[in-house]
Every structure is written in C-alpha cells, then in structure tokens.
C-alpha cells in the first residue's frame, strides 16, 4: 500500500483510509492506492464489507488541481480518464463499499463517493461538484451518477452552480444514506455490518430518477437560459448542462464518454486556466512574505466603527455577521438614525431574499450598538473609521481614537485614497494604524484592501489578514500610494472610458463594450453607482497635483457641477427611474458633443475592440507600474483585487493574467500605438516593456520574485 492510502481491518470489515493532507486530493498515488486496496479486499475471504474514509479534516476535496497544469491537450490519461475505470472497479467490488464522508466530498471526491454502494456522513459534512468554479465540469462520471442518485433537476443545479449541499439535504436527496452523529468511523463500521452480505446497489445501474424526455426538456432549456444570464460568457456551465442531458439520453458508458469530451474541451480552454489561476490566487494573496505565519495575532472580540454612512453601516454589518459586537458612532442623532435605518433595510432585504433568517437578522442587529460618544471605545479591540474623505477630519478622528482607545487596539481607516502615514501621524501609535479599504456595498463585496503604513506592525498586518477571512472577505495587502491598488488603476480606466466618449463614442457603447467583455458593469454606470461626486471631491482635493498640459476628462466634473451625481441624484451619465434602472440620456450625449467641440476634440468612429483595449490595457499598464514600485506583492494580487472588488470577469483571470493570455509583446505594442496617438498618459510601464522584450509573463515575474 502507498503511504497515501492505508488498508486496515476491524475484524471482518476492511477500512481504506486516504491520507493526503491538507485536503486528501486525488494526487498521483491516491487512485492507485485505492485500486490496490479494492483488489486486496476482493481477494480476502475474511472481509464482509469495506469502509472508505478520509484521514485528517476532510473526505476527498477532488482531483489534485495542481496536476491540471501538467496535462497537455489530449493527454489526460494520468487524469480523470484513468480514474473512471477505478470507480467502476469499486462499484463492481464483491463486497459492499461504504463511503464515510466528513468535511467536504467535492468534485472527484463526490464522484468517488457515488461509486461506493452506500454513503454515510457527519451532519456538518458537505458534498458538491464545484468544477464549474474552475472553468471545467465533473470529469469522472459525476454528471452521470449524480442524476441517478439525486434526480436530474438537483444534479443539474449542483453541476451548473457548483455550490455545495449540506449533509442533511444530501440525505433528503438520496445522495447520502445515513447521517452519523459522533464517531464517524464507528458509525460507518456499524452500517457496513448491517449491509454486509446484502446485494450492493450500483449507482451506474440506477435509472428511476432520470425522468422522461418531456420533463427533462423544459429543465434543460431553463437551465441554459439561466446560465446564460447568471454565468454570462462562461463555457463550463453550458457544457455541464450538455453532460447531464447526456446522462438522461445515453447509456452510462456513452454518457461518460460524452462527459469526457466536454471535460477535456473545458480543461484546455483559456477560461479554465484563468479560473484555476484565480483558485490558487485567492489562497496566495493571504501570504505576506515578511510577515511569518506564526506572527502572533491580536484577538478581535469587539469592534467599533466611526461614521454610519454608505460604508460605515455596511462595515458594522460585516462585523455583526461574523458574530463580533460592534459600536457604531455618528456625529449626530439624525445621521445615526439614518445609518441604522439603512442597516435595518439591508437586513430586511436579505431576509426577504432568503439569504438570512429573521432570527439571524434579529441576533445581528443586537450586536450593533449605536452611540454618539467615544465613551465605550476603550473596550474595542479594533476601530474602523469611515467618515467623509477629508484629511483634516480623519486626523481629528484619529486624534480622538488615540486618546480613548486601549493600548494594543487596532486603529484602521476605510479611506479610499488618503495617505495612511499622514493619518497615523495624528496618533502616538502609528504602529497600530492601518488601512482597511472595504468596497461598496461593504456587506456584499468580497474584497478588503489592507493598506500597509510604513509603521504598521506585523501583528496588526497579520491580524487584519486573518480577520478578513473570518469576515468573509478576501484580504489583499497593498502599499500606501494614492488610491492604493484598486482605485489607482480604476482612475485611468474610467479616464480612458470618458476620453472615448469625448472622442466620439457614446456612454452606452463604452459600457456595452466592457459589459460584453465580461465586466459586471460598464465604467460609466459604475461611476453613477458609486456616486460621481466621490471622485469629483477627490479631484478637487488633488487639483494642485495635476500636471499642466496633460489632458484631463472634462465631462464628469461638468455633470457634477450640474448636480448629476449618478444614481443618488437619479441622473449622472444616465438618467434613472424609480427602480434605479439606467436610461440612456440623449441630453448627456449632446452636452458631451458640445463640450468636446468647445475643447477642439476631433470626433471619430471608435470600434468595440479599441474601447476594450484602451480600458483594459490601461489597467494592465498601471498595474505593472504598481508592481515595479512594490505597492502590490504579486501580479496575482492585482488580479484578485479586480475580481473581488471591481467586477472583472473571473474567466479572464484578472487584468494581469489576461495580459499574459494575450501575450505581453502584443499588449506592449498596442500600448505603444496608444502612446503615439494619445501621448504620455500611455507611457508604457518599464516592467511591461522589459517582460515583453524578454518574452516573459507577469506570472513568471511573480514566480521569480518568489513573493
Ligand atoms: N487540489 C490541489 N490543492 C488543493 C485542492 C485540490 N483539489 N483543494 C485545496 N487545495 C490546497 C489549497 O490550494 C491550499 O494550499 C490547501 O489545499 C488548503 O486549501 C475529477 C476534475 C476543500 C473547501 O474544486 O474548495 O475534482 O495555499 O486554503 O479553506 O471531476 O480547498 O495551503 O498551499 O482552500 O479549508 C474539485 C477545491 C477539483 C475543491 C478546503 N474540487 N478546494 O477549504 O482550505 S476538480 C474543488 C476547496 C475535480 C473531477 C474534477 C477548498 C476546501 P495552500 P484551503 P479550506
Ligand atoms: P458618507 O458620506 O456616506 O458617510 C460618511 C459619514 O461620516 C456620514 O454619515 C457623516 O455623518 C459621518 N461623520 C462625519 N464626521 C463624523 C464624525 N466626526 N464622527 C462620526 N461620524 C462622522 O461617506 P462614505 O461613502 O460612507 O465614505 C466614508 C469613507 O469611506 C470615505 O473615506 C470614503 O472615501 C471611503 N470609501 C467610500 C466608498 C464608497 O463607494 N462610497 C468605498 C470605499 C471607501
């Protein structure tokens, strides 16, 4: 037996234990070990039944995703197609095989479990086929066995959405046969003894839940429409639907072959490469090279938020949702009441949409304690300031916090652009000051930019990085430059979008092009959502830093002077109806034409491709500058920031990965073209130039930097 798979016995029951930490992935050696064990069981007359269980914290979390990168097109023999016969061998085992599931049975893990004759699970276990989240589909007959166990509708949902199912629901669906309270192995052995000697049902032979062509036709049609909307631009969800449909129309063997073809098509797509990059990227960003894993963390059992506006209210909800009591301070009662009413409304909407229960809402609201004074701040382990974006006001607030907060408390600012070191200079404890830049709506957006000040201590950094996971956020450490990483790149992105409108394109054409590219929302509509006045206030704050003679967008400031702040004033680049639906406003198009003519900006036809190239490549160029200046640890950090905070399509992997996919030489040459046409704003980043000339990628830059 290999050291990844052990075979032992409990009297007449064989036990196959998989030990491949941390998640018992089906790495090379694991399928082989299971196969050997099944062989031995078949030879051992003393064995009446078998239990297969995972060692450590979980059952099998799927195929080893790290192996995918090593596979070349058409050569998957080491991959899933080698795994398929093993599953049949388990199903054909001469003794009943009971799969004992704890933690997660995901992807190949659930496919393995379904090849067993019975499945028992711990009540807190989860099962699922999350492959679409990697841009692939189940590749070991998951789309064939799951509809046979759980029915077509549920199998479709699980394979297309990729979301896990709790053990209790898996029991109701027929995926699991029994829940085991307490010691799982003990319960599984007892179950095995109950079924020993009885005929072992083979999942692949079951047909009773495969429905009829008439019933299924409507299901598949609805699923295709739904996936087109919800997973816009992605190929894997549609492939998963095709594979489950094959299960209802073909034999198990033919359906499995059909699944294999679809699996391989997805696996060797750019989308899958991008989404696997994202999978590992979300884990990589948690690592800060100079902040060791064992850095002591500051316990955060209570928090406080200053300012209950758009952001402060959402941030208070984030802490309450994580079970951390939070004080919420405002400048006056009216503002406090407004903030609390918004929180109440947001929770009520989530209850209405079934995201939370009423009980959850009531419990969370109890954790949010409104106040108009700093009195109770002395007990807070962490304070987050979210008052208006002005340096003077922020320094005043931090001066107060320095006076009232206990030693060791973390003092954080939610500023979106201001200098963290300057804010920290308002205190006598700059080592406790850090930026925690949430994104609007704070209780929804996953991204948390953690801004490192030059004095921020490693304990404070490590604590915020770890806390972000507890708050359900993806924490990314960034440097303290203007706009940090996300907004520093977003500025040029929105600038180019506005220039394109001023040069002859239209608001809806620019937004349409980026929407078709896969962005959740176009740059103009995003401006209207966040409030055009936020950027306007910041531009006014930094007017003195603008380089003379360098072109600046002219339309948005004029719209703000007209009071068109976007959704909040029902008019910005678009007009908005009562449901906040955007309506193209010909008045804006006419105004922009007039302003462009007055500014002497020549008008021309602009293609969709140019719109995409200018907006996306300016992101890449600014990202490369940020990387070489050291304000981001890795190119993948920039990708994760854009995927979790700016609605960048996950199947493109983020702006830096997308540039690698396009080829940096091509990207660099395109940027040089834009530089010729539009001047110094398009000066290529030296790092991009270097990598392009060396034929390298940002991914290689990360690897070499070993960050
Ligand atoms: N392969 C390789 N490495 C994996 C892995 C996997 N399947 N899952 C996790 N890791 C690594 C991860 O990178 C991290 O490494 C460490 O394990 C801990 O993970 C045939 C083709 C199971 C819910 O999509 O969802 O099966 O950063 O930090 O928060 O049809 O990991 O420490 O170096 O996430 O406790 C389908 C993926 C594969 C599940 C645990 N399976 N994993 O979460 O730990 S495709 C999945 C997860 C497939 C078949 C197809 C989560 C988890 P490092 P972690 P966690
Ligand atoms: P907002 O105008 O909606 O809310 C600010 C709140 O601060 C107001 O309710 C105000 O009454 C309160 N306030 C002002 N002075 C105070 C004081 N001394 N004590 C207590 N409360 C006080 O602003 P917002 O959009 O929530 O932005 C807050 C901060 O978050 C800013 O720094 C902004 O740059 C940043 N931010 C905003 C967004 C966004 O999309 N709106 C996103 C990320 C970060």
Structural account:
By secondary structure, the chain is α/β, with parallel strands linked by helices. The protein contains 30 helices and 19 strands. The strands form four sheets. It has an eight-stranded mixed sheet with strand order 12-11-10-13-14-15-16-17, sandwiched between helices. A six-stranded mixed sheet has the order 1-2-3-4-6-9, with helices on both faces. Helix 13 (310-321) links the parallel strand 10 (303-306) and strand 11 (326-329). Helix 3 (80-91) packs parallel to helix 4, helix 4 packs across helix 5 and helix 6 packs antiparallel against helix 10 (236-249). The chain is globular, with a radius of gyration of 28 Å. The chain starts with a strand and ends with a helix. 49% of the residues are buried. The mean pLDDT is 95.
Indicate the low-confidence ranges by residue numbers: none
Strand order of the largest sheet: 12-11-10-13-14-15-16-17
Structural class based on helices, strands and sheet pairing: alpha/beta
Helical fraction: 40-55%
Helix segment count? 30
Number of strands: 19
Query: How much β-strand is present in the residues?
Result: 5-15%
Cofactors, ions and other ligands in the entry: (2S,3S)-3-hydroxy-2-methylbutanoyl-COA, nicotinamide-adenine-dinucleotide
Shape: globular
Rg, Cα atoms, Å = 28 Å
Arithmetic mean of pLDDT? 95
Distance between the termini: 37 Å
Instruction: Describe the main β-sheet briefly.
Output: 8 strands, mixed
């Amino acid at each position: 037996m290999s050291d990844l798979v052990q075979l032992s016995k409990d009297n007449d029951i064989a036990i196959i234990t998989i030990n491949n930490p941390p998640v018992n992935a089906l790495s090379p050696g694991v399928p082989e070990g299971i196969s050997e064990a099944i062989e031995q069981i078949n030879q051992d007359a003393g064995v009446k039944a078998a239990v297969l269980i995972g060692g450590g914290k979980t059952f099998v979390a799927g195929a080893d995703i790290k192996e995918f990168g090593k596979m070349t097109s058409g050569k998957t023999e080491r991959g899933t197609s080698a795994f398929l016969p093993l599953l049949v061998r388990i199903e054909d085992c001469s003794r009943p095989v009971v799969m004992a599931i704890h933690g997660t049975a995901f992807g190949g893990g659930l496919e393995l479990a379904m090849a067993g004759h019975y499945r028992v699970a711990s009540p807190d276990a989860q099962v699922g086929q999350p492959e679409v989240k990697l841009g692939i589909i189940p590749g070991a007959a998951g789309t064939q066995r799951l509809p046979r166990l759980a029915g077509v509708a549920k199998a479709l949902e699980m394979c297309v959405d990729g979301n896990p199912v709790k053990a209790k629901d898996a029991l109701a669906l027929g995926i699991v046969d029994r829940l085991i309270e307490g010691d799982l192995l003990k319960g599984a052995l007892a179950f095995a003894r109950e079924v020993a000697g009885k005929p072992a049902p083979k999942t692949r032979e079951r047909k009773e839940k495969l429905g009829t062509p008439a019933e299924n036709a409507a299901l598949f049609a609805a699923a295709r429409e739904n996936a087109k909307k919800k997973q816009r631009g992605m190929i894997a969800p549609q492939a998963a639907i095709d594979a489950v449909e094959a299960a209802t129309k073909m034999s198990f063997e033919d359906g499995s072959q059909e699944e294999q073809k679809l699996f391989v098509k997805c696996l060797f797509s750019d989308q899958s490469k991008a989404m696997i990059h994202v999978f590992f990227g979300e884990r990589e960003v948690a690592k800060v090279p100079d902040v060791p894993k064992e850095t002591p963390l500051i316990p955060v059992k209570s928090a406080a938020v200053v300012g209950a506006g758009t952001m402060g209210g959402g941030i208070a909800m984030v802490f309450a949702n994580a079970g951390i009591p939070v004080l919420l301070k405002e400048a006056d009662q009216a503002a406090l009441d407004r903030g609390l009413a918004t929180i109440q409304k947001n929770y009520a909407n989530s209850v209405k949409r079934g995201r939370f229960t009423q009980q959850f809402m009531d419990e969370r609201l109890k954790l949010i304690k409104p106040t108009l004074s700093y009195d109770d701040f002395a007990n807070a382990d962490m304070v987050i300031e979210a008052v208006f974006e002005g340096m003077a006001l922020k320094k005043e607030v931090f001066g107060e916090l320095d006076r009232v907060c206990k030693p060791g408390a973390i003092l954080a600012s939610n500023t979106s652009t201001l200098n963290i070191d300057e804010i920290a200079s308002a205190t006598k404890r700059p080592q406790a000051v850090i930026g925690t830049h949430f994104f609007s709506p704070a209780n929804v957006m996953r991204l948390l930019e953690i801004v490192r000040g030059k004095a921020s201590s490693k304990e404070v950094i490590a604590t915020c990085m770890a806390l972000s996971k507890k708050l359900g956020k993806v924490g990314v450490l960034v440097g303290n430059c203007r706009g940090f990483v996300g907004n520093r790149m977003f500025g040029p992105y929105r600038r180019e979008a506005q220039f394109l409108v001023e040069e002859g394109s239209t608001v809806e054409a620019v937004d349409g092009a980026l929407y078709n590219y896969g962005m959740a929302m176009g740059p103009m509509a995003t401006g209207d959502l966040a409030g055009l006045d936020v950027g306007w206030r910041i531009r006014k704050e930094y007017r003195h830093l603008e380089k003379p003679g360098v072109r600046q967008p002219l339309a948005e400031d004029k719209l703000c002077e007209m009071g068109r702040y976007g959704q909040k004033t029902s008019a910005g680049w678009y007009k908005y109806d009562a449901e906040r639906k955007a309506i193209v406003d010909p008045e804006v198009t006419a105004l922009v034409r007039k302003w462009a003519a007055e500014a002497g900006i020549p008008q021309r036809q602009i293609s969709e491709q140019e719109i995409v190239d200018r907006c996306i490549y300016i992101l890449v160029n600014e990202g490369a500058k940020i990387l070489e200046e050291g304000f981001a640890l890795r190119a993948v950090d920039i990708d994760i920031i854009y995927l979790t905070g700016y609605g960048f399509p996950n199947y493109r992997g983020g702006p830096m990965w997308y540039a690698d996919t396009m080829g940096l030489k091509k990207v660099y040459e395109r940027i040089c073209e834009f530089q010729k046409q539009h001047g110094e704003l398009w000066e290529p980043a030296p790092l991009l130039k270097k990598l392009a000339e060396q034929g390298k990628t940002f991914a290689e830059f990360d690897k070499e930097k070993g960050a």
